[in-house]
Amino acid sequence: MAVILTPSEIVETVQMLQLQNLDIRTITMGISLRSCRSDTSARTGQRIYDTITSRASQLVKTGEDIEKEYGIPIINKRISVTPIAIVADGFSQDEMFEIGRYLDDAAREVGVNFIGGFSALVHKGMTDGDLSLIKAIPQTLAQTERVCSSVNVGTTKAGINMDAVCLMGHIIKETAHLTADRDGIGCAKLVVFCNAPEDNPFMAGSFHGIGEPETTINIGISGPGVILEVVKQLDGADLGIMANKIKNTAFKITRMGELVGRVASNRLGVPFGIVDLSLAPTPTIGDSVAEILEAMGLERCGAPGTTAALALLNDAVKKGGAMASSAVGGLSGAFIPVSEDLGMIRAVQEKSLTIEKLEAMTCVCSVGLDMVAIPGDTSAATISGIIADEAAIGMINRKTTAARLIPAPNKSEGDWVEFGGLLGRAPVMAVNQRDSQQFVNRKGRIPAPLQALNN
Amino acid sequence: MQEEGHRLVITVIGKDRIGIIAAISQILAEASINILDINQTIMQGIFTMTMVVDARKSQIDVADLSGKLADKGNELGLVITTQHEDVFRFMHRI
Predict the structure, then answer these.
(1) Which CATH number does the domain housing residue B24 bear?
(2) A201 near A330, Cβ under 8 Å?
(3) By C-alpha distance, which of A130, A135, A136 is closest to A153?
(4) CATH number for A190
């Protein structure tokens, strides 16, 4: 007997895929570039280009084949590489930019929409190469199309490097300035992390960590729409029942990621890394994390109770997903990027959601202040202050936090920024106007917390 | 089960009408695909048919078959999807 599936199971899956926007958000190939170092930046860049274009030549085609055969939409195929500050340490700012161009060319050649890894890990201090790379970020993000950048400024083990936090405030301002004609889109490709994961498949903060193998395949799943549907059907159920149902559903969603990861890894002959158990929204109606929180019974995302609802959601997704996959990693948690989530946008527009409430929400879910547009005249010191706050949350709670802030040039509260595509559009949010300059300019290091002393 | 690994699940969702199975079977027969099981039911008020087929001897690849069936579906006002069986096995069976 061929059939072991019931029609209702088949229909459930088809409905998830067709009506509830279940998809694989990204297949990300991680590629080590550590063997690409040569004596000049041009030669190093060429070796980087050759390595990426040969290892990832079949990535996009394989993704498209799987999509057709399995009927699972795979939205993005992407590449992450070894942090360039490590590969190119010793090169100047201009040479770092030149290497950024090679990355962009390689991404275009293999047909991926983003390549992550124009990155530096500076949580305890900066090498000369780290500094050159960070200084090259604004020009690189302005003059390349697909390169994404990230800087890790803190960890629970090392504390927070406030020299880097201070510098990043200026870098973000300059990046916005150089892409002012496009609402500061450069900043949408720049993430400042605390406790950055080495195997995160999601952009813009994806890079191929130094503990990773030569090449690997990591999968990011999506599926807020499926969870939303489940929550909507549980009208009146208590929260324990709701958490359990979300858990069951997260299991099923994650199995899709596991399947696609295994098939892709097999066909590409590359080891399967991890499935990232994240609920990643898209700017599509019904594919929103904020709407899930509202379906739980909050009038608007941001209302009192929002952080608790998000904590329940995030934890249930992890519990279900962890059982469904052979290896879980990356960010693994619900994302709350404002510009990529229609429910978040509406909550900001209606003044239900403020930057401070978002910050509280980042304590209980993945990432942090993500795709948040702030007034263009926000000072570098204020941006550094916000980054420091986020990093502190991550450091103390032993979790990843990040800031992807866009000081939208010539825009103020209530204006809109438009990036198009997956990056979406967002209203500019108000920022506390009090000055943080003296604190930020003290620089130095916030020492590692007691939480680090666990040996 | 020799067909294991070569089974596809075809799902038809829409309004019931005469000739659905005939239309689909014709496409399958032309491609040398054997029907293993058919089930039809009304789910949440919508006509739903699921079909499990053996594509071991198929003359065309899954993507082409999927396209042909989807086109036929458009013609008949139905949504027809074709997917590898593993999608369902992975989600519902451990």
Answers:
(1) 3.30.70.260
(2) yes
(3) A130
(4) 3.20.70.20
Domain-embedded: residue B1: no
Same domain for A183 and A296, yes or no, is: no
* Contact between A2 and B62 using a beta-carbon 8 Å cutoff: no
What single-letter DSSP state applies at residue A401?
E
pLDDT average, residue stretch A77-87: 98
pLDDT digits (tens, 9 = 90+) for A409-435: 999 999 999 998 878 899 999 999 999
Q: Is there a domain that residue B59 lies in? A: yes
Whether residues A172 and A232 share a domain: the answer is: no
Residue B44 has pLDDT above 90, yes or no: no
pLDDT of residue A213: 97
CA distance A6 to chain B (A): 9
Query: Nearest 5°: phi and psi at A206?
Result: -80, 135
Q: Which domain holds residue B71?
A: 7-92
Same domain, A167 and A292: no
B91–A252 C-beta distance less than 8 A: yes
Provide ipTM, 2 decimals. Answer: 0.87
pLDDT at B47 > cutoff 90: no
Domain end among A140, A159, A194: A194
Quote the longest CA-to-CA distance of chain B.
38
What percentage of chain A reaches a pLDDT higher than 70? 99
In chain A, how many domains are there?
2
pLDDT-derived band of residue B1, with 50, 70 and 90 as boundaries? low
Show the domain range for A102.
28-194
Give Cα separations from A227 to A13, A135, A301, B6 (angstroms): 13, 42, 16, 31
- Please give the distance of CA A409 from its chain centroid, rounded to a whole number: 23
Q: Please state the domain count of chain B.
A: 1
Q: Torsion angle of alpha carbons A268, A255, A30, A201, nearest 10°?
A: 150
Cβ B50–A10 below 8 Å, yes or no?
yes
Segments in A334-428 forming alpha helices (H): 342-349, 355-361, 380-397
Contact B43 A258 (CB under 8 A): no
Which residues of A touch chain B, with CB atoms under 8 Å apart? 2-5, 7-14, 17-18, 65, 68-72, 252, 255-256, 258-259, 263
> Poorest-confidence range of A2-16, A139-153, A233-247?
A2-16
CB A95 within 8 A of CB A128: no
Nearest CA in chain B to A260: B87
Q: Taking CB atoms and an 8 Å cutoff, what residues of chain B touch A18?
A: 79, 81
Instruction: Classify residue A95: in a domain, yes or no.
Output: yes
- Quick one: pLDDT at residue B45? 75
Examine residue A317 and state whether it is found in any structural domain, yes or no.
yes
Q: pLDDT digits over A268-289, tens only?
A: 999 999 999 888 898 888 889 9
CB contact (8 A) between residue B91 and residue A13: yes
Q: What is the pLDDT of residue A282?
A: 86
The partner residue sitting opposite B50, judged by closest CB among A7, A70, A252, is A7
For chain A, how long is the longest CA-to-CA vector? Answer: 74
Chain B residues within 8 Å of chain A (Cβ atoms): 1, 3, 7, 9, 11, 13, 36-37, 39, 41, 43, 48, 50, 52, 54, 62-63, 66, 79, 81-93
